[in-house]
Amino acid sequence: MQNKIDQSYIRPYGDTNNDGRIQISFSMPVKADETGKEAARILLRQMGLEEIEICYIGDLSEGFSHIVAYGNTKAYVDLTKIKIKTVDTEVMTMDETDEFVDKNIGRKITIIGACIESDAHTVGIDAIINMKGYNHRFGLERYRSFNALNMGAQVLSEDLLSKAREMNADVVLVSQIVTQKNIHIQNLTKLIEMAEAEGLRDKMLFICGGPRITHELAIELGYDAGFGAGSYSTDVASYIVQEMTKRKEL
Amino acid sequence: MLQLTIPQEKIEAAREYAKQITSTLKDLLNAYSSVTIERTVLRLLGIDGALADGTPLPNFLVDQLKEKNALDKGAAYWISNAMVSTGLTAQEVAENVKDGKIELTQIIQQPIEKTIKVMNELTDKMLAHIKKQKATRDEYFAKYGERNKPSLYVIVATGNIYEDALQARAAAKQGADIIAVIRSTAQSLLDYVPYGATTEGFGGTFATQENFRIMRKALDEVGEELNRYISLTNYASGLCMPEIAAMGAMERLDLMLNDAMYGILFRDINPQRTLLDQYFSRMINAIAGIEIQTGEDNYLTTSDAIEKAYTVTASQLINESFAHLSGVKPEKMGIGHAFEIDPTIENSFMYELSHALLTKTLFPDSPIKYMPPTKHVTGNIFEAYVINALFNMVAQMTGQGVQLLGMLTEAVHTPHLADRALAIDNAQYVFNAVKDFNKEISIDKDGFINKRAEKVLDEAIVFLKRVAEQGFFNALEKGEFADIKRTQTTGKGLDGVFRKSDSYINPFMDKIKQELNIN
C-alpha cells in the first residue's frame, strides 16, 4: 500500500491514513461514574471530535476525575501554507564559531546573561553560558571569542542593563523558566521597555530563552531572537555571530 | 541483602573532615547574630502582625533598634525591658512602638533580674507551646501508625492557599503522605515574611504563618477522615530561615527544607548570614521535632550527575555536621540526593542504584530525601513516566525515607490534579511490586555498583580534605563548591549581620542549647 500523503490536507494519523484519531487526557470536577463519562463525551463532542471513546475514568477524590479518551478530529492543516518564524542561521560548532568571529568580526564579543526579576531558576541560562554547557555542547564561557558573564538568578532588569552598559555588551541574554499567569511576558516586556528608555535597545542584541519562549513570541515582544526548549549553546552562539556579521555588513 | 561493602575507616575519615570544616565556624556562630534571628526572637515572644504598608511588625521593630545601634543587646532585651516598665504584653509593646507611643531605647532600663524574669516566662511559654505541637504530632503517629517508608511527597503550587488546600486534600486522599507547599519564586530573597493569607504568587504560594495554619488545619481534617497523619512541609531557606522555622514550629509543620549552604551557593546570600541563620533555624527545628531536609539535588541540576556525584556526598556530610552543631538528631536529618543521571547513558540505573546505596550507607538512621529526575525530563510525558518508575524502584530497593515524586509533566507546568495522582499510582505500584526484593539480592563487592560507590566516596574524601585544609571560607572563595565563587563580605543580607555585645541575650537560643545539650 503506497499512500502518498497530500501536503495540503494533513490530519492526525492513528492507525489509518487521515483517520484524525487523537488522544486526550484531562481532569474535571465530575464523579467517576456514567454521568462523568457522559460529561466528558459531551465536552469532547463540543470540541468537534467524533467516535469518542472514554477509555478510562478514575476517581481523583474531592469530586474530581481523571479522564483518558480518544476521538476523531475533522480538522486538517495545509502544510504548504505554513510560514513560521524561526532562527534559521546555520548551526556551527564552537571551533567553527570562534573561527567565524576571527574572520568576520575580529574582536571578542561581550555577552551578558541573567535570569531576570522573579525567576530564580538558572538551569536554562547555566546550560547556555556556563563553561560546562549541556549535553556535550560547551557553554559560551568556553568560547575563545566570547567574553561571557552569567549574572545568575533574580537579577533586576535595571541591574542587568546597567551591567550591560558598564561592560559595553554586544549581547544581552535573558532566561525565563518558571512562570505562572504569564509573568515571563511581563518580565521580558519590562526589560525591553527599560532598554528602549535607556537608549540601549539598538546598541546590542537582545535574546530571550526558556521553555515557553518561541522565536515568534520573542520578535513580538521586541527581542531580536528567542530560543525555546531543546536549544543549545551552539544555536545561540551561531545566531549571535552570524547576526552581528550581517548587521555589520548592512 | 542489598548492601555495599565499604571500609568503615573511609566513612569515618570523610565524616571527620566534614567535622573539621564546620567546627572552625563555631566562633562566628557564637559571636554574631542577624536581623532575621532577632525577628525570630520577637515572633517567639508572641509579636505578630503588620503595618498598613505590609511591613511585618518584627521587621519594623528590629529595623528601628538597628537604626538606634541598640540591636547588639538582642531584641528580646528591649521588648522585655519595655514590658517591665509599662506592664504591657509583648504584642501591646510592639503596637505602641508602631503607633509612636513608645521608643524602646528611651525607656529607663529596669533592673536586669526583672527583665530576665519576664523574658524567661515568655520563652518558657512559647517553648511549651512548641512542645505541645510536637506531642500532638507524636500522638497522631501513635494513633494512626508511622509514616510510610518511603513516604510519598508531593507538591502543591497554585499561588492561592485555599486552592492549595483543596489540591492537598485530594492528594492526601490519593495516597500522599507529605504535602509541600512550594513558595512563590521570589520569596527566598525577601528579607521579611509576608503577613496573612495569600491568594497570589508566582510558581508557588507565599510562606506565611496564616497560610501554614490554613494548610495544617486542612491536612488534620483530611487525616482524621483517612486515619492517617498527613505531614506538611515548607522552606526554611533564603533570608528568613529562622523566622520560617519558628512559624513552622508554632503551626506544627513536620518537615522543613533547610540546607546549610544552598542560600550561599544558589541564591548568592552572604555566607556569614546563611551560616548564622541556618544555625538558629535548625535549633528551632530540633526542639520542635521537625525533620530537616537538605538540598543536594541542586548540585546535580547544575552539574553532571556522574562527574560531580562526590559533591553531593561532600555536601551531605557537611550538612550533617552543621545539623549536629544545632542539636538535630540523625533520625530527623533528611539528607538529600537526586536521580539525575542522563537516561541515555548505558547502565544509568546501576549508577543511580550505587549512588542511592552510598547515601543510605553513610546515613543509615536518616530519613533520606530522594529527589526526582528533572534535568533530563524533556516534556515527553510518557518517557518521564517510565524514568520515574525506575526512580521509584531504586528508592524502594535502597530504603529511602522520603520520595519526592517525579511528575510526568515536569518541565511542562506545575502539576495538574491528574499528574499528581498518576505519580502516586506509579510509586505505589512500584513500591509494592519490589517491596522485599532487596532482602533477597546482593551485589558483587568487586562489581560495578560497589566500586562506583567507593569511588564517589574516595573523591568526596579528597574534596573534603582539601576544603578542611583551606578552611570553609577560602574554599568558598575559590569556587570549590559547585564551581560557584562566594566571598565572606559579599552577597545578599550581609548588612543584616552584626556582632553581639557582651550583654546580648537570645533567651530562646540559650534555652534550646541547654535542653539539647549544645555547647
* Largest sheet descriptor of chain B: 9 strands, parallel
Q: Count of helices of chain A?
A: 7
Mean pLDDT of chain B: 96
Judged by helices, strands and strand pairing, the structural class of chain B is alpha/beta
Topology, element by element:
The complex is a heterodimer of chains A (250) and B (519).
Chain A: E1 21-28, H1 34-46, E2 49-61, E3 64-73, H2 94-104, E4 109-115, H3 123-129, E5 146-150, H4 157-166, E6 171-175, H5 183-197, E7 205-209, H6 215-221, E8 225-227, H7 233-249
Parallel strand pairs in A: 4-5, 4-6, 6-7, 7-8
Antiparallel strand pairs in A: 1-3, 2-3
Chain B: H1 8-23, H2 26-31, E1 32-34, H3 35-44, H4 57-67, H5 75-86, H6 90-98, H7 112-144, E2 151-156, H8 161-174, E3 178-181, H9 209-226, E4 231-235, H10 241-250, E5 255-257, H11 262-267, H12 271-288, E6 291-293, H13 297-302, H14 309-325, E7 333-334, E8 336-338, H15 348-362, E9 369-371, H16 381-398, E10 402-404, H17 417-433, H18 437-440, H19 448-470, H20 472-477, E11 497-499, H21 507-516
Parallel strand pairs in B: 2-3, 2-10, 3-4, 4-5, 5-6, 6-7, 8-9, 9-10
Antiparallel strand pairs in B: 1-11
Helix pairs in contact in B: 1-14, 1-19, 3-4, 3-10, 4-6, 5-7, 8-9, 8-17, 10-12, 12-21, 14-19, 15-16, 15-19, 16-17
